[in-house]
Amino acid sequence: MPSERHVVVTGSSSGIGKAIAQALLRDGWHVSGLDVSPTTLDHPQFDALRVDLTDGPATEAAAQRLAGAQAFVHAAGVLRVANLGRLNTAEGELMWRIHVDAAQRIGDRLLPAMAAAGLGRVVLLGSRVAQGKAGRSQYAATKAALTGLSRSWAAEVVAHGVTVNVVSPAATQTAMTEDPARQAAAPVLPPIGRLIRPDEIAALVSFLLSPAAAAITGQDIQICGGASLPR
Asked: Concatenated DSSP letters for 68-105?
């Protein structure tokens, strides 16, 4: 990767997105953070863009300003839970806009330039719930969509030096796990006996953005703490 490495990270003000931004700053990246919340990072190589990712035109305008970035990490996310008979259309649309629509709007601006330059890395934050879980149908649908999106993008740019992958954590220790909107459905601890840490996810993302990961593309990599093991 070039010496002046520029990465766009959504959801950089808290949780997984913040941990990823911090890890990439330590790796020497220039990080542009997209988040509706005020930034909580103070670093000379970090700049924040306040943008509501549910606002399509605003998201596209922010992405256009960042065209030329060598990497894109989509970590912004929100979780709403509901069982059949109580599905909330507005909350389903909220998750779709943040998880999928924002990713495609930003990716559509950044990936063509990466492919033209012959260099690029994309990581979308998925979830193990994408495989299906009771009470999470709307959330699971949006996260499953990211796998299809990423594999399709990977197929388009694989010959142009650009990789596209999904990282899918099990339940992670973030403010999302303490959101009152999901208190009726507490996260289940993986077999390791604790929640996944944001810095563990950040470490994998950091590797996927490195030159050593140039041959890894179109994959959905799980950080599951043993949750995917047969039992």
From this structure: T-SEEEE---------TT---HHHHHHHHIIIIIHHHH
Q: pTM here?
A: 0.92
Options 46, 72, 139, 153, the catalytic residue:
139
Q: Residue 47's beta-bridge partner residues?
A: 32
How many C-beta atoms lie closer than 10 Å to residue 83's C-beta? 12
Judge whether 7 and 71 are in contact, CB under 8 Å.
yes
pLDDT tens readout for residues 77-90:
999 999 999 999 99
Using a 10 angstrom Cβ sphere, with 0-12 exposed, 13-18 middle and 19 or more buried, the burial of residue 218 is: middle
Q: What is the rounded distance in angstroms from the CA atom of residue 155 to the CA atom of residue 143?
A: 19
Residue 139 known to be catalytic: yes
